[in-house]
Each structure stands twice: as structure tokens, then as C-alpha cells.
Amino acid sequence: MNIEIRDAALEARIQKQMQATGSRNVEEVLLRLLETQEEQDRWLLENRDANDTKIRRGIEQLDRGEGIPEDRLDTYLAELKAKPE
User: Fold this and answer.
1) So what's the pLDDT on residue 21?
2) What does the buried/exposed string (b/e) look like for 19-37 if buried means 16 or more CB atoms within 10 Å of the residue's CB?
3) What is the phi/psi pair of residue 75, to 5°?
4) Separation CA 8–CA 14 (nearest Å)
5) How many CA atoms does the CB half-sphere of 49 hold within 13 Å?
6) Whole-prediction pTM
7) Hey, where are the domains in the chain?
8) Is the distance from CB of 32 to CB of 21 less than 8 angstroms?
9) How far apart are CA 83 and CA 71, in angstroms?
10) Measured distance CA(27)–CA(23) in Å, rounded
11) What is the DSSP track for 20-79?
């Protein structure tokens, strides 16, 4: 199979990915990207119920007015990131 890339920006992204990953050719880049995508798809499928539950819980909290006001969101997220796990 031959794939022709006509978009210069896409070709540049692929070249950048080759350099970043040490891939020797485009096939290695595509293989790595496909493996990553497949892994993400598997994770999403395996965790679908838990993710759906969290989304529903968040929507219910917003419906009850328990959300964080937009003007305080950046501060709240920065505080979360600063907390040790």
C-alpha cells in the first residue's frame, strides 16, 4: 500500500514525530500511533461504565448548583495540581 501525503503541515507533523520517537521511517510512526490509539480505545471501553458514572455525578452536582464558578476555576485547578497525591 502506498499512501500519498499532500498536506505539507501533516507531513511536517509526521517528520516531527519521527524525530521525537526515533522512528526510522513513516511506517514505524504509523505503527506507534495506531498502537497508542488502540490502547486508548481499549482503556475507554474497559472504563466506560466508571466514566459514565462520574460524568452523571458531575452533571447532577451542576444541576444542584454545586459547580465551581468560572472566575474561581483556574485557582481551584491550580490548588488541586499543587496537592500531593
Assistant:
1) 93
2) eeeebeeeeebeeeeeeee
3) -65, -45
4) 10
5) 1
6) 0.65
7) 8-46, 48-82
8) yes
9) 21
10) 8
11) HHT-SSHHHHHHHHHHHHHHHHHHHHHTHHHHHHHHHHHHHHHHTT-SPPHHHHHHHHHH
pLDDT digits (tens), the chain, 85 positions: 888 999 999 999 999 999 999 999 999 999 999 999 999 999 999 999 999 999 999 999 999 999 999 999 999 999 999 988 7
Contact between 14 and 29 (Cβ < 8 Å): yes
Structure-derived torsion over alpha carbons of residues 52, 55, 61, 63, reported in degrees to the nearest 10: -100
Can you give the pLDDT at residue 45? 97
44, three cell numbers: 475507554
pLDDT at 84: 85
Residue type, 14: I
From the list 35, 32, 2, 1, the residue with the least C-alpha distance to 19 is 32
